[in-house]
Write a structure and sequence with these properties.
This protein is mostly beta strands. The protein is built from no helices and eleven strands. The strands form two sheets. Strands 2, 4, 5, 6, 9, 10 and 11 form a seven-stranded mixed sheet that branches. The chain has a four-stranded antiparallel sheet with strand order 1-3-8-7, with no helix packed on it. The chain starts with a strand and ends with a strand. The mean pLDDT is about 95.
């Protein structure tokens, strides 16, 4: 099994910043991609940012210019630096990873349990 553990969520005022972290642990041969999704009440879960090995990061339009995703491959960790936060950024943020646990295994998708981000106006 592979576990994803998020941290860094909390309550901030509009215009503030938060840095989310997600650490993957367990039997891992290779992580092909890591990213962040979020879900607000009444809305579908949406992609916020993702980084695929060997490629540049992709962002949702709402995150461009404000959020930065980075990955520490040595520690199987992904970060999401969120600046200039807005109330509409309020959501549960979920870490996502595509993992190959062994060289001869297929790629599998894993999710963290989520961390709450609340932005007050």
């Amino acid at each position: 099994q592979v576990q994803l553990v998020e941290s860094g969520g909390g309550l901030v005022q509009a215009g503030g910043s938060l840095r989310l972290s997600c650490a993957a642990s367990g039997r891992i041969f290779r992580i092909n991609a890591m990213g962040w999704y979020r879900q607000s009440p009444g809305k579908q879960r949406e992609l916020v940012a993702t980084v695929i090995s060997g490629r540049s990061a992709d962002y949702a339009d709402s995150a461009k210019g404000r959020f930065t995703i980075s990955r520490d491959n040595a520690n199987n960790t992904v970060y999401l630096q969120m600046n200039s936060l807005k109330p509409e950024d309020t959501a549960v943020y979920y870490c996502h990873a595509k993992v190959k646990r062994r060289a001869y295994y297929v790629e599998e998708a894993y999710w963290g349990q989520g961390t709450q981000v609340t932005v007050s106006s």
